[in-house]
Each structure stands twice: as C-alpha cells, then as structure tokens.
Design goal:
This protein is an alpha+beta fold. The protein is built from 13 helices and 20 strands. The strands form five sheets. Strands 11, 14, 15, 16, 17, 18, 19 and 20 form an eight-stranded mixed β-sheet that branches. Helix 5 packs parallel to helix 6 and helix 10 packs across helix 13.
Length: about 475
C-alpha cells in the first residue's frame, strides 16, 4: 500500500510552503531520512526527509506550487517486511501479477477537462494545464518537448509556464533549443536567464515584429535610451516574497494595530559598548552590538510585563511561559525572524555570543527549524537602516513588536542642582506596535517605560557578563 508523504508543520504561524526543488524523482530508491524535497516558507528554507525507506512512486506537488502544511506532496512504496519478500509460491506470484495489472495507468476519464503537467511551474507563477488528448509525457527533456511538438506549435507552448514564455519572448530566446533542468526536463526561468547571458547582446531582447533591437545596425529602428528608460517592468516575486506578503496581509487584517513611541537617552549604553567592545572581542571573538543591550532590556521587561509576551487565540489570551524573542533580519530573499530562546536568562555578553551565529545563518539563508520556531515577541532593529521612527507590522500571531531606531546626537536638557543645562547626548527612539485586543495604552506604556529605564541605567562600568 502506498505511503503518503505530507508536508510537515514547522510552527504555529507557518501555514503554507512553496515546493522549491525536488531532490528525488519517481522511481528513485530512498532511505529513511534522506532529503527528498526542498521547500520554502516565509521563515526558513528546509529539506523534507523521507519518513521511511522504499521507492518514490509519485510526486503530487510540482516545483513552484504553494501547498498547505499537512498536505500530501508525494507517495512512496515502503520496503516490504523480510518475511513477505521470502514468499515465492505460485499463489504469491499470481497475486503479484494481478497487482501489476491493477497498477497500470488508466486512461483519463472522458469528462476530465485537463490534467496538470507535473513539470510546469504551478502555483505562484500561475497554473499550466495540458489537454488530455496530448501524448503522454516522456521523462527525458527531449521526449517532453517532442510530446508537445506532435500537436503543433500551440501545444508546444502549453508545456512552458507563462513566466518562461514571457521572459523568452522579451529577450529573444528560442525555448525549443534549451535543455531544461527542471523536473521532467522542463525549462525553468533560470534556464532562460542563463541562455540569455550566453548570447551577450541578444539578452537585451528583441523589438516588436518588423523592427530590430539595439545593436542590429539599423539606426532608424534602434530604440532610444529614453524610450527604454520609461517602460514599465514586471517583476515576479520570489516564493519567499509572496509568503511574506501574505503573512503581512493576514497580520494587518486580523490584528487591530496600535502604536506608541518613546525617546531614550542611550549615552551610557554607547559608552559601555565603547569601553567593552575590544575586551569581548579579544576574549570571545564576538562583536558587541547595540542589539545585545536592547535585547537584554526587552527580554527582562517582557518578564516583568507578561501581557506583552502573549497572543490572541480564539477569543482568549495565551500568556507565554518562555521569553523567546525573534530578531528581524534582512536575509538574501527577504525578511526572516530567527528566535533567541529564553533570552531573559542571558547576560548582555551571553546574548552577544548567541546573536552572532544565528544572524549570520539568517543572512546566508542557512537557518534551521529550531532557529525559527517558538517566538513569543519580535525585536526589529530598523535603526541599522537609518530609520529614526516607524511603525512595524506585528509578527502574527504575537501580540507586539518593538523597533529600535537610529542613535542620534541631540541637544538635551540636563537637570542640575541649581540650574538646568543643555548637553549633547546619544538619543534613540523605541517604537511599539501592539495588538489592541490584548494590550491597552496603559500596559504598552508600562512596558515601554520599563525598557527605557533599563537602557538608561546602563553606564560604562555596568557588568556585561
């Protein structure tokens, strides 16, 4: 009996994933825990392991397709138990013959409109279907194209995704000359881009019928730079970008956002980092960042203000027992949020040591499941991008997100024993977006003041270890 392979659940806020690349194909022998497919979520790129040993018999989710967590993506035939393999009597042989006949592929039903082409880009780039009257698809790239060619040019075009067809038309690539690297030999967007690079100037594309593109030698029909500059361009978002977009829409649709900001004098924190930066680097090889200081203050403030460390679930509020702070990081393909678990149990130096490797993995696209699971609150350091004030979107289903903004030199009023004075201090804004179903202004303000007090208490001699 076939064994169904399901897309595993990887976290409470991750509901879907995109099939990025199949690492095995039907007919391949696989061992238990072998990686069979690479999938992309809005949090992490991961490999799905085989649940048991056997033979992969069928793939039901094509590369590029968006599927829900828990959905069946493939089927496999598990290895038979040893005692069954040893049976060789005539009755078993006859039973095997009948099973083989039953397993033979059946012709498509007469009332079927069409069947999905497994090799096509399905999902984010649009579905591609093939008329059931076309010949069966060959597993080789040449056979795959030949099947469409039998029915003429229109049928051949149906074997390519809309993205591939549009891109090939724009840059003047003959798809029939390409050897596809996708599943079943399909031509992918990457194949077209690689081909465009190999033909040099031709990659700029061809003009409309009856004209020539730049470099053709026809001065009268050569497109001017100004006409090229004003043309619109359509960019196909990556699977990660699409899932981030869906996640953000869900957050602002389901969560009533409220927002608050507080100004913090971080002169002492700046002095502490300057005094301890080289010491920590020499002792551990780790860079001491402002993020380690702010994460320490935020984590301990969450412990003191548990309502901020919660989520709204079906009309009730779940107060989280652990303080697991997600850190928003700009990765190669979009924003990712690795999690620092039990951040309230660490010192500033301890957080600096834990932050360095996880942020490096996030930027390199090498996060694992443990890195992104279990977050209860999110900290976003938009100040690193030069921002001075902003309202972030809450990381659903959490109840709040805090942004730390750029540290700026500003004149401030300093209270003196007799007269106030004006001095230049380092000042930073902290901004909180919160779920107004869970948190009111009073609770938000109490949390912000707690973070402010902890940050302003830091000075050059504050112990970090």
């Amino acid at each position: 009996m076939p064994h169904l392979i399901e897309l595993p659940h990887v976290g409470e806020s991750v509901t879907e994933a995109v099939i990025q690349k199949w690492l095995k194909k039907p007919g391949d022998r696989i061992e238990k825990y072998d990686a069979i497919v690479e999938v992309v979520t809005d949090k992490v790129t991961m490999e799905v392991p085989a649940p048991t040993s056997g033979t992969l018999t069928r793939i039901t989710a094509a590369e590029g397709q968006t599927v829900q967590m828990g959905s069946v993506i493939a089927e496999m035939e598990p290895d038979a138990p040893a005692q069954l393999v040893a049976v060789h009597d005539s009755q078993a042989a006859r039973a095997s013959g009948r099973a083989h006949e039953q397993a033979a592929p059946l012709p498509p039903a007469a009332d079927r409109i069409g069947q999905m082409v497994m090799g096509a880009n399905v999902g984010p780039t649009g579905g591609v279907f093939q008329d059931t009257s076309l010949p069966a698809r060959s597993e080789s790239a040449a056979g795959f194209r030949q099947a469409g060619a039998v029915q003429g040019q229109d049928a051949g075009l149906a074997l390519y995704s809309p993205v591939v067809l549009r891109l090939a038309a724009q840059i003047g690539i003959d798809l029939s000359e390409l050897e596809g690297t996708g599943l079943g030999g399909r031509v992918t967007k990457k194949d077209v881009l690689v081909a465009a690079q190999s033909v040099g100037g031709k990659s700029r594309g061809t003009s409309a019928p009856g004209t020539r593109g730049r470099g053709s030698g026809d001065a009268e029909t050569t497109a001017s730079p100004s006409s090229e500059a004003i043309e619109d361009r359509i960019i196909d978002p990556s699977p990660v970008r699409r899932m981030i977009a869906a996640h953000m829409v869900r957050s602002v649709t389901e969560i009533p956002h409220a927002w608050s900001a507080v100004e913090v004098d971080v002169t002492g924190m700046v002095e502490s980092r300057a005094a301890n930066r080289e010491k920590l680097r020499a002792a551990t090889g780790v860079e001491l960042t402002y993020l380690a200081f702010t994460l320490h203050a935020v984590a301990h403030s969450l412990r003191a203000n548990p309502l901020l460390n919660s989520s709204w679930e079906g009309g009730r509020v779940r107060l989280k027992g652990r303080v697991n702070v997600g850190i928003a990081v700009a990765g190669a393909e979009g924003l990712v949020v690795p999690v620092v678990h039990d951040a309230d149990r660490e010192t500033v130096a301890g957080l600096a040591k834990r932050l360095a490797p996880v942020i490096a993995r996030a930027r390199d696209g090498k996060l694992n499941l443990d890195d992104v699971q279990g977050g209860t609150f999110t900290l976003n350091n938009t100040g690193a991008l030069g921002s001075v004030i902003g309202g972030a979107i809450i990381n659903h289903p959490q109840a709040a997100i805090l942004t730390t903004e750029a540290i700026m030199k500003r004149p401030v009023v300093v209270a003196g024993p007799k007269h106030d004075a004006i001095a230049v201090h380092s000042v930073m804004n902290i901004c909180l977006s919160f779920d107004h179903r869970v948190i009111d202004g009073a609770e938000a303000a109490a949390f912000m003041q707690d973070v402010k007090k902890r940050l302003e208490a830091i000075h050059a001699d504050t112990p970090l270890g």
